[in-house]
Amino acid sequence: MKKTKKLVALTLTAVLGLSALTGCGTKGSRSNDKEIVVGATIQPHAEILNSDAFQNKIKELGYSVKVVEYTDYVQPNEATQDGSLDANFFQHKPFLDDYNKENKGNLVSVAKVHYEPYGLYAGKTKNLENIKDGALIAVPNDSSNEARALQMLQAGGLITMKEGVGLEATVKDIVENPHNISFKEIESAQTPLVLKDVDFAVINGNYAMQAGLNVQKDALLIEDAKSVGAETYANILVVKEENKDSDKTKALVKAITSDEVKRFMEEKYSGAVIPVF
Q1: Which of 52, 213, 241, 271 is close enough to 208 for a disulfide, judged by CB 3.0 to 4.6 Å?
Q2: Could you give the CA distance from residue 47 to residue 104 in angstroms, rounded to a whole number?
Q3: How many whole angstroms separate alpha carbon 274 and alpha carbon 116?
Q4: How do residues 111-153 score in pLDDT, each as one tens digit?
């Protein structure tokens, strides 16, 4: 009996020791200096990183990239902050700024990569030439996305907003509305689902793709790549501040902003994902 207890104690000690070593290994203690671990949401970010275009380019630069896929927007930043990831690719700058502010983080953007354009899609009314007085347009109801939608509608000549409101605009800031347009403010993911009930809907690139819509073929208006929305909400490559000038980061930036990756995005996504480099 004593021998059995001693054996169990030794086994537990060994397991705990191994667990401690494994836990440490998840926080930046990887021994392979030529492997870069990047966290990304699945579409389109992980698709881009897993593409032959990117993988071949990073190999030319002497590195390999392991892509860790996420389905949420919280864990990638936390894992980058604690060193489990070398970098992440899923977010835009305003989201990163909020994370740093709320979590006392020190993550930084090292490259603007792409943006997913908003489009205005036809519902009950099939073209803008036949827009009727009192037309109903569905727009996202969260502040930043609604502002992007309104900016695009203004660029398309449908409304005019107060000067200088920019990406803080709401429907209350509309000063000219010649068609007396009404707005249905709903959650972004719901915009494709209400097309049959409204005259038009402003839909984000991700949700448009999921609904089988092609922004270049189906949209009546498209957010311009040089618009304030596209510039502000470009998706970025993110690392810890102390790693922004590292060789790994330089290789990542060079690969993800290469001509090869640009061509991949243009051919793969048909305008639903637009390179900004």
Answers
A1: 213
A2: 30
A3: 6
A4: 999 988 899 999 999 999 989 999 999 999 887 789 899 999 9
